[in-house]
Amino acid sequence: KAGVTQTPRYLIKTRGQQVTLSCSPISGHRSVSWYQQTPGQGLQFLFEYFSETQRNKGNFPGRFSGRQFSNSRSEMNVSTLELGDSALYLCASSLVTSGENEQFFGPGTRLTVL
Amino acid sequence: SQKIEQNSEALNIQEGKTATLTCNYTNYSPAYLQWYRQDPGRGPVFLLLIRENEKEKRKERLQVTFDTTLKQSLFHITASQPADSATYLCALGAYNFNKFYFGSGTKLNVKP
User: Fold this and answer.
1) Which residue in A10, B54, B103, B106 has the most C-beta neighbors within 10 A?
2) Residue B77 CA neighbour count, 13 Å, CB half
3) pLDDT, tens digit, for every residue of A33-87?
4) Could B102 and A42 be called an inter-chain contact, meaning their C-beta atoms sit closer than 8 Å?
5) Hey, which residues 58-97 in chain B have their CB within 8 Å of chain A?
6) Would the CB atoms of A100 and B46 count as touching at under 8 Å?
């Protein structure tokens, strides 16, 4: 069974631009969560999608948004990029709503904002 | 606000010994706690989950304890091997996945 895939793996943008990251969950998994990982803040929860609906959201500004498609694939968008948005963005999928259930993480997208 | 603390300093141990990692939390009463392993350049890999009403759980060489009074979880790797070298993260959450938080992780180095 294929694992969670994320594209692109690496991305370089400049301040003010916007970016869209993509995540394909494991086949059959309906829940997709997004996380931001930085050396200073560690892994921080961004939001979770289940059956195309955002179920939970972390404490991030509205510049961070996402969506989920009917095939469970998910995209995350960051608008008006700031230097502090440079991070590893990870998505994780699970069979049903995540949290207690095991989450399977993708390799991440390394975003650098110049 | 909630705070999760894991040893920020790397833990260096000799092969064959038991590694013990600590996860402390404050201002939060989680329903469950998870432990993950993360290798450089990779996403975290789920290892174990323990619920608030469970005191201990084991899986092969891994053992985790959960003390809701002390607000602490201990993660043990027995008979450690160099291949166990990685960063270990704890994560706490509620059953409805609201308020799910990761610790900053502890780097474990197992020397042959």
Assistant:
1) B103
2) 26
3) 999 999 888 899 999 999 999 988 888 999 999 999 999 999 999 999 999 999 9
4) yes
5) 89, 91, 93-97
6) no
pLDDT tens sequence across B46-77: 999 999 899 999 999 999 999 999 999 999 99
- The distance of A18 to chain B (nearest Cα, Å) reads 24
Nearest residue of chain A to residue B43 (CA atoms): A107
User: 3-state class of B98 per DSSP?
Assistant: coil
At B83, give phi and psi (nearest 5°).
-65, -15
Distance CA A50, CA A44 (A): 19
Contacts of A102 (CB under 8 A, 6+ apart): A94, B46, B49
Q: What pLDDT score does A98 carry?
A: 57
Please, which pLDDT band fits residue B27 given cuts at 50, 70 and 90? confident
Helix (H, G, I), strand (E, B) or coil at B87: strand
Burial (CB < 10 A; 0-12, 13-18, 19+), residue A27, is: exposed
Does B40 touch chain A if contact means CB atoms closer than 8 Å?
no
Among A42, A56, A90, beta carbon nearest to B43: A90
**Structure tokens, B79:** 């008979």
